[in-house]
Amino acid sequence: MPYTILLFLYRKPGLSFAEFKNHYENSHMPLLQSIGGSYFPKSHTRHYLPRPDGGSADIMKGAKEDLDYDAMAELVFEGEKEWKAFLALLTQKENKERVEKDEEAFQDRDKLRAVMKPFASVSSFKKAHQN
After folding, report:
1. Does residue 19 register a pLDDT over 90?
2. What is the rounded CA–CA span in Å between residue 8 and residue 73?
3. Distances from the Cα of 29 to the Cαs of 38, 102, 103, 128, in angstroms?
4. Torsion angles phi and psi, residue 13, rounded to 5
5. SS3 of the chain: helix, strand, coil, percent, to 5
6. Given phi > 0 = left and psi -120 to 50 = alpha, else beta, which region is 40?
7. CA–CA distance, 75 with 116 (Å, rounded to integer)
8. β-pairing, 43-48 with 71-77?
9. For the segment 20-74, what is each residue's pLDDT rounded down to a tens digit?
10. Is the torsion defined by CA of 97, 100, 104, 105 positive or negative?
11. From CA 73, how far away is CA 48, in angstroms rounded?
12. What is the pLDDT of residue 104?
């Protein structure tokens, strides 16, 4: 049964959104893949919330300050066993030091939020075919 982790990430103060995204994609992701090897999640989807001119995100409904993260990542593992194996690799002393050092370059680690759920729930709506 798939095991899903949702992460809410915040950029380091003073870092532009473009710098944050570039570091996440081109430094952090390759680092995680090299450490995780075969236990890297079967998917690691990142959703960015850009803030034009350093202001607030373009929120459709609700208070802008309620959605203050810069990226939401969804990590999907084959199961809880694979998640725990990946986590064990990340928390090995040398790997942990490498990951923390890299995160400090682009993230506000004190604000990081994580939600775990034992399964991925996906619903879809198919648009009715119109003639």
Report:
1. yes
2. 7
3. 14, 10, 11, 38
4. -55, 140
5. 45, 20, 35
6. beta
7. 10
8. antiparallel
9. 999 999 999 999 999 999 999 999 999 998 766 566 666 666 666 667 889 999 9
10. positive
11. 9
12. 97
For 19, the enclosing helix (H) or strand (E) is helix 17-23
What tokens appear for 74 in the block?
A: 């969804």
Two structure tokens written together for 118? 């034992």
Which residues make Cβ contacts (< 8 Å) with residue 69, sequence separation at least 6?
8, 9, 10, 49, 111, 113
Tokens of 59: 């929120």
Instruction: Count other Cβ atoms within 10 Å, centred on residue 107.
Output: 22
DSSP 7: E
Q: How many residues does the chain have?
A: 131
d(C-alpha 99, C-alpha 12), whole Å: 15
